Amino acid sequence: MMDSSELLKILESLAEKNRLDVYCLLLTKGEHCVNDIQRALAIPQPAVSKALARLRKAGLLIYRKVNNSVFYNLNPDFPANRILQPLFTDENLPVQISLSIVPPAAHPAAGPVLKTETAPEESQPAKPAKKNADKDFLL
């Protein structure tokens, strides 16, 4: 059984957007290396590393090293992951992620590359075209 201080540590580790996004990505898409996580979420690599370290310290993640890459995944033996998993269904994720594969010759070490598609914002009205745009240039 988990005591309140352990639960608080877990909830605090998820109480930041980058950490929550990283956790959601790994929960829904499985194991990924740091570079793929960074590209998928479009956040700076240092922010990804910091988020991963905090989640790992809380016990939510495990990692393995392959050559120069570090791959992260959810810790299957950690009870909190089994409790949290139902809370994060695809419809409720803060980002929608699609997987695209980069040919091995283009990126031999990274494997699959992820792209992020954010939910569409309210459409902005188109800006009107400039009248007499050719008069903006000086001859």
Short description:
With 139 residues, this protein is α+β, with helices and mostly antiparallel strands. The chain is built from 5 helices and 5 strands; from the N terminus they run H-H-E-H-H-E-E-H-E-E.
Q: For the CA atoms, what is the radius of gyration? A: 20 Å
What separation lies between the terminal Cα atoms?
A: 78 Å
Coarse structural class: alpha+beta
Average pLDDT for all residues:
74
Main sheet: strands, sense, barrel:
3 strands, antiparallel
Number of helices: 5
Percent helix range: 25-40%
Q: Which series of helices and strands comes N to C?
A: HHEHHEEHEE
The tally of strands reads 5
Amount of beta strand: 15-25%
Contiguous uncertain segments of 5+ residues: 96-123
Describe this structure in words.
There is one protein chain. By secondary structure, the protein is α+β, with helices and mostly antiparallel strands. Helix content is 36%, strand content 19%. The protein has five helices and five strands; from the N terminus they run ααβααββαββ. The strands form two sheets. It has a three-stranded antiparallel sheet with strand order 1-3-2. The protein starts with a helix and ends in a 22-residue tail after the last strand.
